[in-house]
């Protein structure tokens, strides 16, 4: 193990001339597993020369910042500025709830998503607040509906919160350091496919990469969940899989505790989005405030079946559990024209299960193969068109996305 600071080293304690990294003590060889040094400020593997805490100030730095803490006495650190001239990130669509897992389970799927480009820009006269440091230069694919004001845009908020994390855990930003974003919407608004989470995840990753990637991906969920809270409520079942990929169980939001779930089977989803908007806040408002003990028992059993199906790779259990929500889906289904017929058609055509994706109106079904998915896709589209009198704006058979947000 490694320990910082005042204890003498057990072996090799002499410090080389000019060594600016903190003194560490090591256990005797063979007595314990040797680990990477851990930065005592934010308890994660130190990135060495890339770590803002341990980066040497350049010669002639006119405004060095004095590090705090006993081990850093007398050492200086320059303000943190962007490390790159350009970064871009893509985040996928997500399916939240998965039936009975309301607000605690979600997954990422391949196909469409949002892309955010980040570039540094210089703030004339410096920044008065973190909000001043983030500007949104342009947005495409939103039909002019989203604001360019960063503090009221989910991508802008996520970038602001990423900068807040950098300042709180890595050090002060440069006086004029700013971030300019360009957002390309690949997901329709209010679709139930995690549109706001995709924007937030891509923006957080692009900003993190622009500043030299000081944080691992999981840390970026903290920035994204603040963005989600401003748009649709404080929940992580979209933003967590959008960042991390795969299935994610939200064990707690305060504090934020996530559990990625490995699914050993290939999994296919049929996703059908009609031209009909179901805003998350409105769809949450129709949910029951109280439920019976019997409904609670049934829904808990369905969620247990779904979770076991995921970790055991049992596609049939995943489908049946996903299709057995007794609380949320019954409340929302009547608000989505034709959904009941869509679900019935999907099952009849061979789907293992079908439910509402997130708040809707997208319907999602689980199938065993892409070939099975094509027949289910046609049946679901037909029901939305004939029974719901709705046009289809997106329909596809897609795989589980295991990567989540990524640089592009």
Describe this structure in a few short sentences.
The chain is an alpha+beta fold and 408 residues long.
Give the beta-strand count: 15
Q: Describe the largest sheet.
A: 7 strands, mixed
Shape: elongated
Q: What's the helix count? A: 10
Low-confidence stretches: 1-50, 52-76
Q: Distance between the terminal alpha carbons, to the nearest Å?
A: 37 Å
Sketch the topology as an H/E string, one letter per element.
Answer: EEEEEEEHEHHHEEEHHHHHEEHEE
Q: Which percent bin holds the helix content?
A: 25-40%
Mean pLDDT across all residues, rounded?
84
Given helix and strand content, the structural type is: alpha+beta
What portion of residues belong to β-strands?
A: 15-25%
Radius of gyration: 24 Å
